[in-house]
């Protein structure tokens, strides 16, 4: 609150009684601004807003108190301009014109004997206008936040609908693509994060968006999902996307070429994420986790497989068991050549053969036979899911 002097109060009330000329001059200036000139706000609406705004600001100047209606009007006007798509910079430019127009209007009313006192009180005029501009900004920013929440809610709802529909309904796919800002026939990368890596995935989505990818992040208790698509027709290699995911502990599906395939890709990425071991770091490609995915698909069957295939090794000593398992793992992860396995283990090939024979005698599985090798490899992955067992 300020205490207006007699000169400023009189001039403000005189100006308040004759606003029409002031409004027309100000409206002409505002309508010349780019956003207003483009037709975002009708001229009559601009004029009506000025009539109310100037009246309230002049009352503030004349009475020294902010009329309750000023804050309400300013914030409502800011909200409306945000909804009409007027950029904040244009709204503030119009606000600065308020100060110029009001000052000019007061100077026109002032006589020579009033000028000294008017100049001394100039800051009170700026304060009154600033109060109005502050309300405009508060309303504008509140509306922008609310519109952002509404858009995000709409994006979440349509992505959930796409998942529920499994991409089978072309209308749902088309509408979801429009809401999410995706090209339905473009290329998509899908990642599903470990439940504890939501913050990292959110940060990665920000980096991807700044790198030219369209992104949608969907929150889920079982692990947040991230769908990314290169903008336009720019090709982005999968290794680039993996690099942008950085240290995010997540599963990544193979790229898909249509939005309708994204629900399927989400399931694949989720499977890769579930299969990642507790010590796994960074993104895990499905192509590199097939055995883990199958082992993790049914924990009960995985435990049964590990017990039936590897359980007989419990009958021998720990040192021998470790040697046999090391030999088998090295062979299965290598070229399949006994000679290469021997080199990797720094031992003779006959030693490798003897260990394979011993493993076969104990488990009934010969890792040199493709079928048995596949079963043993899967049993080893299953055992890794539950080391204590």
TrEMBL record:
Q: Which Gene3D superfamilies match?
A: PucR C-terminal helix-turn-helix domain
Q: Name one Pfam family in it.
A: RsbRD_N
Q: Which InterPro entries match?
A: CdaR-like_regulators, CdaR_GGDEF, PucR_C-HTH_dom, PucR_C-HTH_sf, RsbRD_N_dom
Residues in domain PucR C-terminal helix-turn-helix?
324-382
Q: Which family does it belong to?
A: Belongs to the CdaR family.
Q: What is the lineage of its organism?
A: Bacteria, Bacillati, Actinomycetota, Actinomycetes, Streptosporangiales
Query: What species was this sequence derived from?
Result: Streptosporangium roseum (strain ATCC 12428 / DSM 43021 / JCM 3005 / KCTC 9067 / NCIMB 10171 / NRRL 2505 / NI 9100)
Q: What is this protein called?
A: Transcriptional regulator, PucR family
Domain CdaR GGDEF-like, residue spans: 167-275
Q: Enumerate the spans annotated as RsbT co-antagonist protein RsbRD N-terminal domain.
A: 22-155
């Amino acid at each position: 609150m300020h205490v207006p002097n007699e000169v400023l109060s009189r001039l403000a009330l005189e100006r308040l009684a004759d606003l029409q000329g002031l409004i027309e001059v100000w409206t002409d200036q505002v309508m010349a601004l780019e956003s207003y000139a483009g037709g975002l706000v009708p001229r009559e609406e601009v004029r009506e807003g000025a009539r109310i705004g100037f009246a309230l600001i002049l009352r503030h100047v004349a009475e020294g108190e902010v009329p309750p209606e000023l804050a309400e009007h300013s914030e409502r006007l800011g909200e409306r301009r945000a909804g009409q798509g007027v950029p904040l910079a244009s709204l503030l430019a119009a606000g600065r014109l308020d100060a110029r127009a009001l000052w000019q209007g007061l100077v026109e009313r002032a006589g020579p004997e009033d000028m000294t006192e008017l100049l001394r009180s100039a800051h009170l005029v700026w304060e009154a206008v600033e109060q109005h501009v502050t309300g405009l900004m508060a309303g504008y920013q509140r509306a922008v936040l609310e519109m952002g929440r509404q858009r995000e809610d709409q994006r979440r709802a349509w992505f959930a609908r796409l998942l529920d529909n499994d991409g089978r309904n072309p209308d749902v796919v088309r509408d979801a693509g429009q809401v999410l800002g995706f090209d339905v026939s473009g290329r998509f990368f899908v990642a599903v994060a470990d439940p504890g890596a939501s913050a990292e995935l959110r940060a990665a989505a920000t980096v991807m968006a700044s790198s030219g990818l369209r992104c949608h992040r969907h929150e889920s208790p079982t692990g947040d999902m991230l769908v990314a698509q290169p903008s336009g027709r720019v090709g982005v290699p999968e290794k680039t996307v993996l690099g942008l995911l950085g240290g995010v502990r997540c599963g990544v599906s193979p790229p898909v070429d249509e939005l309708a395939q994204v629900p399927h890709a989400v399931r694949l990425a989720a499977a890769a994420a579930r299969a990642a071991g507790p010590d796994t770091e960074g993104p895990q490609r499905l192509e590199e986790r097939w055995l883990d995915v199958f082992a993790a698909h049914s924990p009960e069957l995985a435990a049964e497989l590990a017990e039936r295939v590897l359980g007989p090794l419990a009958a021998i000593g720990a040192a021998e068991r470790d040697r046999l398992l090391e030999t088998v793992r090295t062979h299965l992860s290598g070229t399949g050549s006994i000679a290469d396995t021997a080199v990797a283990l720094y031992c003779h090939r006959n030693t490798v053969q003897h260990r394979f024979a011993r493993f076969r005698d104990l488990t009934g599985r010969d890792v040199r036979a493709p079928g048995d090798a596949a079963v043993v490899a899967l049993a080893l992955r299953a055992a890794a899911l539950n080391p204590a067992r």
